[in-house]
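Retry 2 of 3 after timeout on previous attempt. Resubmitting structure tokens to design endpoint.
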């Protein structure tokens, strides 16, 4: 039976119309799911008993199974969820400076196997359904008392643009005023560089943020770290990102993980400046978080400081992000569909 949270409000309207119900009733049911966040049709008290029974006969309303919840010393929380078919996914709640950011997964496993990221180690299992994407956020809400999620980032396990339809539908529900009502500019899609997806996203008319995993500014190093670069080369990726910035009038963010003896030398910095200077973009630098299956190590603090100084000196807008949840393997590059 299909989960009711796989459907958009427009699809609700169409279903309710077939049943002889008004669009007003469809909005009421939608509100119960996302504004009141109930987990049972029986709780939708302003719908008739007949309509509630019809919903129960035609749709499921299942919660994700929370297998494990870990809390970091910095108060970051990592959630391990079990799906109905036994696959596992992880999500993270990151509190920082008055914000609560939910980091969501879009796939069980990842097909792109970046050479420094734990998410692809166990291989790709499948795309997540809309209800499984939304379900992560709802389960996070259930753990909160007097606070609410302010930002959503698709930076968990998987490649969002490889599950394009479901991720975009989930985003529209998250953004909808009758849904979870989180502003578009507080929602970020992070991609390893799926060029057709970036081009398609540019035409959606959404004011969401685009973040691109770059990690190297030359073809050879990026291909070593990110095999997707063979299919979507750096030169074509940057061209697509420039077009995206022009079409959407939105700044593109490039994620760049600093790895010792690989991508944080002066030469690497100069290459990055040449690639990005002169157009609407910024760089988020992250110090590499070790994953036991990979041989890489983080650079020394002085190397990090030099790289930041070099970029800023050359006019690149750059932020050095502090890793959160590192002690519970909840930081960037550490999420995976982990078995217990």
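Retry 2 succeeded. Sequence:
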């Amino acid at each position: 039976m299909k989960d009711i949270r796989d459907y958009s409000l427009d699809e609700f309207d169409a279903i309710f119309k077939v049943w002889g119900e008004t669009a007003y009733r469809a909005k009421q049911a939608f509100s119960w799911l996302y504004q009141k966040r109930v987990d049972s049709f029986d709780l939708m008290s302003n719908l008739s008993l007949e309509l509630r029974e019809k919903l129960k006969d035609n749709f499921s309303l299942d919660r994700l199974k929370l297998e494990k919840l870990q809390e970091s010393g910095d108060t970051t929380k990592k959630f391990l969820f079990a799906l109905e078919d036994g696959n596992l996914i992880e999500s993270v709640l990151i509190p920082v400076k008055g914000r609560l950011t939910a980091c969501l997964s879009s796939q069980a496993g990842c097909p792109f196997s970046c050479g420094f990221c734990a998410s692809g180690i166990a291989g790709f299992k499948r795309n997540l359904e809309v209800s499984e994407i939304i379900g992560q956020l709802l389960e996070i809400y259930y753990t909160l008392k007097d606070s609410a999620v302010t930002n959503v980032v698709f930076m968990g396990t998987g490649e969002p643009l490889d599950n394009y339809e479901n991720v975009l539908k989930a985003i529209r529900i998250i953004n909808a005023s009758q849904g979870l009502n989180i502003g578009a500019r507080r929602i970020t899609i992070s991609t390893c560089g799926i060029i057709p997806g970036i081009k398609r996203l540019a035409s959606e008319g959404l004011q969401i943020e685009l973040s691109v995993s770059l990690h190297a500014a030359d073809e050879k190093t990026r291909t070593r770290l990110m095999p997707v670069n063979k299919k979507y080369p750096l030169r074509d990726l940057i061209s697509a990102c420039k077009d995206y910035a022009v079409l959407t009038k939105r700044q593109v963010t490039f994620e760049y993980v600093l790895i010792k003896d690989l991508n944080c030398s002066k030469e690497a910095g100069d290459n990055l400046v040449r690639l990005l200077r002169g157009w609407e973009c910024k760089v988020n630098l992250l110090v590499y978080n070790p994953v036991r299956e990979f041989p890489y190590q983080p650079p020394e603090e002085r190397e990090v400081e030099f790289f930041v100084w070099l970029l800023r000196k050359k006019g690149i807008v750059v932020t050095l992000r502090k890793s959160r949840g590192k002690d519970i393997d909840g930081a960037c590059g550490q999420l995976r569909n982990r078995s217990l």
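Attempt log closed. The CA atoms of residues 71 and 77 lie 4 Å apart.
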